[in-house]
Amino acid sequence: MKQFLAFVRKEFYHIFRDRRTLFILLGMPVVQIILFGFALTNEVKNSKIAILDMAKDETAHTLIDQLNASRYFDIVEYLQSYDEVETAFRTGKVRMAVVLPAGFGRDLEHLHQAQVQLLADASDPNVANTLTNYAGSIVRDFQDGLLKGQQLPYRINAEVRMLYNPQLKGAYSFVPGVMAMVLMLVCTLMTAITIVREKEMGTMEIMLVSPLKPMLIIVAKAVPYLLLSAINISSILLLSVFVLDVPINGSLLLLVGESLLFTLTCLAFGLLISASTSSQQTAMFISLTGMFLPTVMLSGFMFPIENMPLPLQVISHAVPARWFYQIVRNVMIKGTGLETIWKETLILLGMMLLLTTLAVKKFKIRLA
Amino acid sequence: MFFKTIIMQSGNRRQLNNGHVSVADIVMTYGKPNAAVQALQGINFEVKPGELFGIIGPDGAGKTSLFRILTTLLLPTGGRAEVGGFDVVKDYQAIRNSVGYMPGRFSLYPDLTVAENLAFFATIFNTSISENYDLIKDIYLQIEPFRNRRAGQLSGGMKQKLALSCALIHRPSVLFLDEPTTGVDAVSRREFWEMLRRLKAQGITILVSTPYMDEAGLCERVALLQNGRMLGIDTPAGITASFGKLLLAVRNENMLPLLKLLKSFEEVEEAYPFGEYHHVVLKQGSEKDLRARLKAAGMEAEVITAVPGIEDCFMDLMKN
User: Fold this and answer.
1) B93 forms bridges with which residues in the sheet?
2) Is the pLDDT of residue A342 over 50?
3) Which of A7, A217, B85, B252 is within CB 3.0–4.6 Å of B17 for a Cys-Cys bond?
4) A47-163 adopts what CATH topology?
């Protein structure tokens, strides 16, 4: 036991004396959460639009006012002719233009039918889609207002409710993602380097010619990073709850427990890399390409897994972050319990055990 | 429970029976069979308990390979070796539990202080600094003033003393020192050998390798190693006594032309620079003959008889 504690203390010395790395390790989750929370948002707010009002009647004005009142749109330009629409888009001033044809109010009143044209800049398809949807729903609301008291012969109202995230906040999806990413970086990358560094420095040579067992070395190397990850998990959760207003709907204990399980899986992977490589550069490269990229790309955090081609979907099963992402989404956002995530938990547990066994097996007890 | 199992695993505390080291027909080959490098080609020797045994050889002779095999870090391609009665392949753990090893490259933690390094190595060998302090006292006292300095900031000689302290802290029965004096200044080197002599008095078997021939005389027995082959094993006196030829030392103001001239004489078997003199091994003739021969060639030079050293013997053995 004394040997083990001495080894862990030595690892802590290494970590604490490398101030810059320590700062990055503890500061990274804070920076990422804040970046994703405030800067890198894909929500549509205050988009600039132009209006071409050729009707100039009261009905048209009411509709325009309603568009302007919504927090999605910001009318920056009133156009005079159809030709100016193109120019407005070209100069990049506006994202969408709304065209109200001449006689809009009159047609609506007499013919009970009128046209509104929505022109969107589809060079960014997602934004264009969102904007036209918003505008469409404002026009629909306007139409509903006109129908006050009257009954149409057939009418179906699609009642939409956004469950678990009624305000469609981006934070709900990236908090689980950032958690997976940060834990992966800290655990895999840092532990991947730690054993290899001793090999490069030559201290492994002395470590081997000692009573220490590989298992003890490996576990002692992992402990400090497990503690660092625990700090990161709490700082991410605190920031999400108090700064980004993302609630923890499920059991906090379960969430922390699952996060630690994921941490252990990443640590085991890092140690496996460290035990089977011989230079820090190789170890870093493998952990970045082998772990970090799949975590970002294939976990479902950035891109939906269902939309991927089949081979990528199959590969994504081997990415621990995919399962962790699902677990966190379920526990944190949906507030479900272990009964919905036992399968993912078992998969992570299996991966962790397999990777640890491989790391111990791969640990070379000799130099060559 | 989990931790318990780890501790139990390291509970294998088998210690060496004695400080005896034996090496039999050790062969070490690196690389693929078609492009193999033979680092050791059948090495045999015995080291008695408590002996200060030197392995002398130039760079690339195979010293480090030999040390790594004896410290169980490498598996030999062929042959057998035992340390303290344990086989280096089968019983590697018993050997690892109780030998001291100081690799050729400084291998301590540069970001840990002197005291932290020492305490760490004491603990992983299941001992404490106070338990064996008497053994390292002489050495450690010299670096004690810097106990709170990071090991990476020590000077070369200090690093080496710290490394030796760390290798000794668990009172090993056999101590392996791989080129401990390479890259260390002359004063520190002398001090270092002084320390080794004191350690020997404590009954510790010491195997030390060095590329410096002048250090051979400080060992009790030496093995001369060259290109993976053993050239000879004896006491330093025994090795120099076996030099059966006349050795002369020659010098004048124009050393380079002198050497060229000496090499051109057919009765000269070997001539090489040696400090302020050129050492000359004669096939036949005497001191007087050589002096006359030099004079005839128009070159005045001082010629005296020299006592052969280990280096002279090494040069001689290397040729045969």
Assistant:
1) none
2) yes
3) B85
4) abc type-2 transporter like fold (3.40.1710)
Q: What are the backbone dihedrals phi and psi of residue A149, each rounded to the nearest 5 degrees, phi first?
A: 80, -25
Domains in chain B: boundaries: 2-239, 243-319
Partner-chain contact A205 B73, CB within 8 Å: yes
How far apart are the two ends of chain A, measured CA to CA in Å?
A: 29
The nearest alpha carbon in chain A to B177 belongs to A206
Distance CA B319, CA B60 (A): 17
Question: Which tokens go with B23?
Answer: 């090496």
The model's confidence at residue B11, banded by pLDDT at 50, 70 and 90, is very low
Distance separating alpha carbons of residues A68 and A64, to the nearest angstrom: 6
Tokens of B269: 């078997």
> Span A24-46, mean pLDDT?
80
As a dihedral over the C-alpha atoms of residue A118, residue A122, residue A124, residue A125, rounded to 10 degrees, the angle is 80
Its ipTM equals 0.84
Q: What confidence tens digit (pLDDT) does each residue in B141-189 have?
A: 989 999 999 999 998 888 999 999 999 999 999 999 999 988 888 888 8
Amino acid identity, residue B121? F
Architecture of domain B243-319: 2-Layer Sandwich (3.30)
* Residue A222 CA, distance from chain mean position: 26
A197 touching chain B per CB within 8 A = no
Count of H helices and E strands in chain B?
11, 14
Strand runs (DSSP E) across chain A, as ranges? 47-53, 73-79, 96-100, 117-120
For chain A, domain boundaries: 47-163, 171-362
Q: What digits encode the pLDDT tens for the residues A139-167?
A: 988 888 887 767 777 777 778 788 887 77
Q: CA-to-CA distance for B285 and B186, rounded, in angstroms? A: 38
Separation in Å, CA B148 to CA A355, B151, B251: 39, 9, 51
Determine the distance from the C-alpha atom of residue A358 to the mean position of all C-alpha atoms in its chain, rounded to a whole number: 30
The minimum CA-CA distance between B20 and chain A, rounded to whole Å, is: 18
Exposure string (b/e) for A15-28, b if CB count within 10 Å is 16 or more? beeeeeeeeebeeb
The mean pLDDT value of chain A amounts to: 89
What does CATH list as the number for B2-239?
3.40.50.300
Nearest to B215 by CA among B193, B232, B188: B193
Residues in chain A: 368
Query: Cβ of A163 under 8 Å from any chain B Cβ?
Result: no
Interchain contact B13–A (C-beta under 8 A): yes
d(CA B45, CA B57): 15
In contact, A279 and A200? CB cutoff 8 Å: yes
Query: Are residues B110 and A215, on separate chains, in Cβ contact within 8 Å?
Result: no
